[in-house]
Amino acid sequence: MSGLSIRDVSIRYGKRVVIRDLTLPDLPAGQVTVLAGPNAAGKSTLLRAVAQLGPHAGRIMLDDADLARLPGPQRARLVGFMPQSLPSGSSLIVLESIIAALRAAGETPAAQADAQAMAVLDRLGIGALALNPLDQLSGGQRQLVSLAQAIVRNPRLLLLDEPTSALDLARQVRLLAELRRLAAEGRVVVAVLHDLALAAQWADRIVVLHQGGIHSDGPPEKVLTPAMLAEVYGVEARVERCSRGNLTILIDRELAPVP
Ligand SMILES: Nc1ncnc2c1ncn2[C@@H]1O[C@H](COP(=O)(O)OP(=O)(O)OP(=O)(O)O)[C@@H](O)[C@H]1O
C-alpha cells in the first residue's frame, strides 16, 4: 500500500482508554486530511501515536513500513511532527533550531545544512527571523518556526497539531496553502484543526473523532452537517454555501448538554 494506514489502534492512559480499536481508510499521499472533534476527543493523542511519540496498540504503517519498528533516524527522515506548541527555555537562535531538526535524521555537512535551513525559512516567509533567539519570538512566529522544523527533513508524512492556532488571518491562509503545496509534492498531510470553516476550504478529507472512535470520515461536504455538529459538538448550526460556493458554518446556539 502507499500512504498512511492506521489499523486497530487503541491508546490508553493508565486504565483510561482514549482511542478504542480505531481503523481508518488509508490516507494517500497528495491529500490534506483534517482531524477534528471536540476538546479531549483524543486528536493530539492519536497524532502523537502516529508520530511514535506515545505508546499504542495496533499497526501504523507508512508505505508498507511499520513506523513502530523503524530505527529512530530513519523514522525522523520519513515523519515530520509539528507539536501544539514549541517547548520554551531554548537557548538556540531560529536557524540553529532548524539545523538541529535537520540533523535528527543524520549528519549533514555544515554548508548544506545552513542552505537547507535557510531555504525552508524563506519558503515560509520568515527568513528575516533566522538570527533571532527562539525564546524571544511571538506566538505566531514560533508556530511558523515549528512548521519549518517539521518540514526541513523533507518528510513523506507531515503531522501537525493545531498549526494555525496562533496565526493571524493572512498567515492562517499562507500556512494552509503551504500544506496543500506540501501535499501536492507527494506527502501525506494530517492536521488537527478546530476551525471547521478552514477545514472545509482547505481539506480533502475530514475525520471527526468522538468518544474514542470515528464519528464521520469523508470529504468536507459529506462530513460537515447540522446533525454531526449537534451530535459531536452539541450545537445547533447551519451549514451553508457562501457566494463563492465555499461551505460556511453558522452556530445558532449551544444545545442542552446530554445528561
Ligand atoms: N499524558 C496524559 N496522561 C493522562 N491523560 C492524558 C494525557 N494526555 C492527554 N490525556 C487525556 O486524554 C484525553 C485526550 O486528550 P487529547 O489531548 O488527545 O485531546 P484533544 O482531542 O487533542 O483535545 P484538545 O482539542 O482539547 O486539544 C483527555 O481526556 C486528556 O485529559
Automatic annotation (TrEMBL):
Alphabetical list of PROSITE patterns matching this protein: ABC_TRANSPORTER_1, ABC_TRANSPORTER_2
Subcellular location(s) of the protein: Cell membrane
GO cellular component term, pick one: plasma membrane
Alphabetical list of InterPro entries matching this protein: AAA+_ATPase (IPR003593), ABC_transporter-like_ATP-bd (IPR003439), ABC_transporter-like_CS (IPR017871), P-loop_NTPase (IPR027417), Siderophore_ABC-ATPase (IPR051535)
Keyword Nucleotide-binding carried by entry: yes
Residues annotated as domain ABC transporter: 4-236
Protein origin, superkingdom: Bacteria
GO MF assignments: ATP binding; ATP hydrolysis activity
Keywords, in A-Z order: ATP-binding, Cell membrane, Ion transport, Iron, Iron transport, Membrane, Nucleotide-binding, Transport
GO biological process, one term: iron ion transport
Protein name: ABC transporter ATP-binding protein
Taxonomic path: Bacteria, Pseudomonadati, Pseudomonadota, Alphaproteobacteria, Rhodobacterales
